[in-house]
């Protein structure tokens, strides 16, 4: 417990909230339930809106319709029962200019809280009936004297996210306590040097905390939000830069030194591929091959749209690694995606001596220590992490859809080798600002063009009235063009995990489509609750054209390359972020045939402009940037990802702020040593530990 103001310093922000004085245990537990564990967390529990009660007036001067604050002496208060089991609390408030009636509903406790003779300040909208004035208070507070300073009325009052039993007023009271402690602290809590703050026009950190919780104008709120958001971005980017610097110093490895003969064999392998690499694929391949020959372990992030050819780049790198008699591990988040990689890589390397294994929960090529050393490339799921066998000499680790794996999982996979080179891949289109903020510890490669001959997928937002016509068109296309179609059903709930109700819904839709809509076609069903072998068999059958239509839930990675599938119908398309729709759309259009995407909706209450924008836009990057601006960062991936959870107020769609924070980080690293800034250094260590623990 803090005893005196002299003892108050930076340590107070790390104090556990259990030390808050005059706070009931149930309030402590409710604060903890919201994620507030320390005084610092409390200060960073930001308001989501504000009530402007800053206009104060004498009672005799108020007008009907005004939102105003008045204060005076409470003359009387009583509870009036009604026939409808509703009670009305009526009070009379008087000042030297007049009286006003205060009216509450079903708040009987007020007759004990507000007693005649009390000095009360109330805020709300004034009403009138003739000469009589009344108010239904939106907020009130008891004052010691008529001149006492107010906290909840007579000012701009912050409103906080709440849970049952924890009011916004209680949260504000506790924040006021911490702010008061800070005002008596004998040290500054500032993290960023004064010259950098001045150049970027930022207020001090303590002032920002005070302002966002105790503003006097809404303009002040904007300035405080700018500083606090800048702070989050600054810490995140600086942390990434420091991780990258530490990686370059500590992650030394045995380089994959390619001889001139090896380089010729790699070029021969590329030449014999059944297609010509795009310029983007060539550029990225060169970057990766250059990296793996260094003594510092590669830590590269490869971003490219669905179908852009990331797997080919990974295969070339694995082949080069194999030429030095070393192993490559490739991990995918789902069994189906692992199967896709295994099939693709096996086909690409069939005329080489590179041996490929598959290691998943349902399929295990590696069953002994001897077999672990026989293969040059092992494709798998989490089973790679849990494998009890040591691999021969892992020099390259490739992680697909890396955002679906936490830091600890990636670290465990890397332990399969001695500081192996790491290539992380994603098909999720990620805006520049997000990449800069969340992945600046990585070297970035982007495949920004599709293979030659791929046609743009024609996308249509189909009105409900034309649903039947859409079904008939699909049937005609399948029969005349001998093509296939996906029909994706959305999850009923917002969770990424399929509930039984969602499974029942997709099964019901499957039966409906099979019996009533497409009785003359062969329809298959796929969902996440099926056993791995069943999913594998279903996808293999679809690939072999056993089915004309595959009905699936959206959480299943329907990533097997089925060139003959040219139609993607997405039910409930209004529920998805644009980046997710883009991922699904990318499952067709994987050959030279013209492909189509039909967007069906299940609700009339949605904004069609988003889906119209999607229908005419084929750049994943443009779509993700649009989604970021209109729906927020949580929509970029299908799930709330680890990179966003630590950003409470920063706006990743604010390009200027993100690049301003990056510039400030570069300035700091050029002119200062983080080790010489103890407060910032401590925050960096704490931040990086917390980030790893969350993942």
TrEMBL record:
The keyword RNA-binding does not apply. Gene3D superfamilies: Nucleic acid-binding proteins, P-loop containing nucleotide triphosphate hydrolases. Residues 481-634 form the Helicase C-terminal domain. One of its GO terms (molecular function) is DNA helicase activity. Pfam families: DEAD, Helicase_C, RecG_dom3_C, RecG_wedge. PROSITE patterns: HELICASE_ATP_BIND_1, HELICASE_CTER. Residues 291-447 form the Helicase ATP-binding domain. GO terms for biological process: DNA repair. Keywords: ATP-binding, DNA damage, DNA repair, DNA-binding, Helicase, Hydrolase, Nucleotide-binding. This is Probable DNA 3'-5' helicase RecG. It comes from Candidatus Roizmanbacteria bacterium CG_4_9_14_0_2_um_filter_39_13.
């Amino acid at each position: 417990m803090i005893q005196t103001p002299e003892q108050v310093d930076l340590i107070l922000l790390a104090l556990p909230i259990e030390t808050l004085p005059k706070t009931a245990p149930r309030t402590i537990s409710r604060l903890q339930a919201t994620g507030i564990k320390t005084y610092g967390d409390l200060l960073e529990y930001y308001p989501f809106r504000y009530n402007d009660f800053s206009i104060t007036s004498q009672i005799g001067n108020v007008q009907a319709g005004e939102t105003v604050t008045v204060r005076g002496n409470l003359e009387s208060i009583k509870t009036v029962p009604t026939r409808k089991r509703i009670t009305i609390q009526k009070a009379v408030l008087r000042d030297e200019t007049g009286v006003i009636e205060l009216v509450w509903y079903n708040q009987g406790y007020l007759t004990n809280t507000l007693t005649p003779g009390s000095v009360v300040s109330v805020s709300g909208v004034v009403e009138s009936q003739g000469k009589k004035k009344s108010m239904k208070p939106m907020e009130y507070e008891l004052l010691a004297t008529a001149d006492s300073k107010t906290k909840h009325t007579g000012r701009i009052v912050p409103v906080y996210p709440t849970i049952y039993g924890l009011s916004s007023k209680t949260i504000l009271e506790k924040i006021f306590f911490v702010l008061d402690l800070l005002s008596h602290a004998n040290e500054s809590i500032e993290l960023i040097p004064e010259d950098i703050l001045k150049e970027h026009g930022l207020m001090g950190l303590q002032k920002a905390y005070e302002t966002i919780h105790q503003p006097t104008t809404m303009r002040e709120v904007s300035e405080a939000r700018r500083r606090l958001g800048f702070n989050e971005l600054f810490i995140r980017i600086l942390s990434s830069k420091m991780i990258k610097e530490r990686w370059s110093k500590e992650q030394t490895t045995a380089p994959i030194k390619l001889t001139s003969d090896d380089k010729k064999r790699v070029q021969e392998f590329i030449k014999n591929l059944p297609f010509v690499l795009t310029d983007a694929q060539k550029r990225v391949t060169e970057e990766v091959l250059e990296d793996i020959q260094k003594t510092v372990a590669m830590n590269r992030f490869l971003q490219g749209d669905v179908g852009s050819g990331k797997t080919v780049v990974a295969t070339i790198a694995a082949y080069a690694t194999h030429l030095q008699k070393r192993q490559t591990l490739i991990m995918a988040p789902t069994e189906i995606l692992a199967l896709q990689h295994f099939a693709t890589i096996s086909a690409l390397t069939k005329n080489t001596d590179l041996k490929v294994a598959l290691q998943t929960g349902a399929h295990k090529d590696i069953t002994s220590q001897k077999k672990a050393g026989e293969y040059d490339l092992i494709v798998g799921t989490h089973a790679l992490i849990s494998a009890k066998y040591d691999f021969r000499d892992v020099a390259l680790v490739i992680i697909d859809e890396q955002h679906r794996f936490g830091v600890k999982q990636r670290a465990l996979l890397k332990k399969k080798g001695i500081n192996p080179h790491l290539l992380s891949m994603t098909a999720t289109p990620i805006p520049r600002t997000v990449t800069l903020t969340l992945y600046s510890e990585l070297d970035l490669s982007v495949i920004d063009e599709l293979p030659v001959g791929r046609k743009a997928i024609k996308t249509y937002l189909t009105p409900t009235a034309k649903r039947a016509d859409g079904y008939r068109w699909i049937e005609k296309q399948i029969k005349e063009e001998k093509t296939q179609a996906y029909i994706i059903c959305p999850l009923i709930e917002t969770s990424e995990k399929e509930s039984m109700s969602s499974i029942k819904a997709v099964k019901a839709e499957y039966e409906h489509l099979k019996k009533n809509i497409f009785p003359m076609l062969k329809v298959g069903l796929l969902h996440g609750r099926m056993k791995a072998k069943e999913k594998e068999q279903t996808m293999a059958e679809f690939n072999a054209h056993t089915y004309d239509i595959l009905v699936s839930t959206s959480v299943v990675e329907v990533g097997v390359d089925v060139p003959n599938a040219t139609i993607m119908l997405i039910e409930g398309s209004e529920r998805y972020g644009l980046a997710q729709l883009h991922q699904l759309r990318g499952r067709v259009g994987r050959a030279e045939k013209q492909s189509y995407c039909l967007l069906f909706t299940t609700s009339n209450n949605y904004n069609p402009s988003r889906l119209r924008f999607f229908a005419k836009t084929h750049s994943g990057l443009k779509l993700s940037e649009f989604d970021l601006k209109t729906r927020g960062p949580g929509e970029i991936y299908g799930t709330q990802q680890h990179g966003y959870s630590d950003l409470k107020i920063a706006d990743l769609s604010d390009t200027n702020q993100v690049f301003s924070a990056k510039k400030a980080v570069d300035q700091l690293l050029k002119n200062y040593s983080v080790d010489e800034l103890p407060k910032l250094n401590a925050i960096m260590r704490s931040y990086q530990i917390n980030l790893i623990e969350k993942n």
